[in-house]
Amino acid sequence: MKFDMGATTLADLTKKTTGSSEDLGVLIKQLVAAADPLEGKFNGAGKAAFDSFKSRADSITSDLNGSLRAILGGQTGMDRSFGTGDEEQASNAHQNMGSANFEAARFGAR
Question: Of the candidates 14, 1, 2, 4, which has an alpha carbon nearest to the alpha carbon of residue 78?
Answer without folding.
Answer: 14
